[in-house]
């Protein structure tokens, strides 16, 4: 476990999965990140790589060879090496190896950087293709925030506030795969009231967002989480329908397989294409108050 902090916030990161496990406001020691109670969901903020969501039948093809990979890939379950450490910044690294090549046939290097800027933590992903072949991958974030954030409040006291979008439909999942069924999400308003039954059919998938940020806010307190995600083409919003006291706001480069997917990784919706020796990078941030 590594701790980085400044005068405003404190962040803890575990070497397994390079996963952020705590995001704390120091002025009142308030925790904003979900505690990973396995009763509901035993993770805090896993990194999704080299896929986001599920592939059909937990299988995919590259050049007619079949590989097995479970939901969200393997990065979250592997030990990363701590390669750089400062008071307000750390970098973790995962490098492909013989075991990972059995699941994913590309040589890669994945760096995850956490950097503090005032009351914000910036999380950057760097994917380098170390292979001789063109590499196909997805990557995404899965941070879970306490919902409600303030003791004594109810889930229904909270809402999502989008920066620009006022009309938006959400795609539904069907047994973990992306369907073509949509529901109204925003209608002439950039505010989405929250309630448990919103997630009765699993996560809601947003495409084509105009907004570069979304905030989790309360009608009864000043607690707030703001997620900035410029450039990310997809977003998942999720909470288990079992009364779990957290909500996930998930910026993604990639998405689950379609129901009628043929399993070809190279033609998968949302897949990133990376030439040999080239590095992909993206950054999202979380600010709290």
TrEMBL record:
GO terms, biological process: carbohydrate metabolic process
Domain of life: Bacteria
Any Pfam family matching the protein: Aldose_epim
Stored Gene3D superfamilies: 2.70.98.10
Molecular function as annotated in GO: carbohydrate binding; isomerase activity
SUPFAM superfamilies: Galactose mutarotase-like
InterPro entries for this protein: Aldose_1/G6P_1-epimerase, Gal_mutarotase_sf_dom, GH-type_carb-bd, LacX
PANTHER family the UniProt entry points to: APOSPORY-ASSOCIATED PROTEIN C-RELATED, GLUCOSE-6-PHOSPHATE 1-EPIMERASE
Stated name of the protein: Aldose epimerase
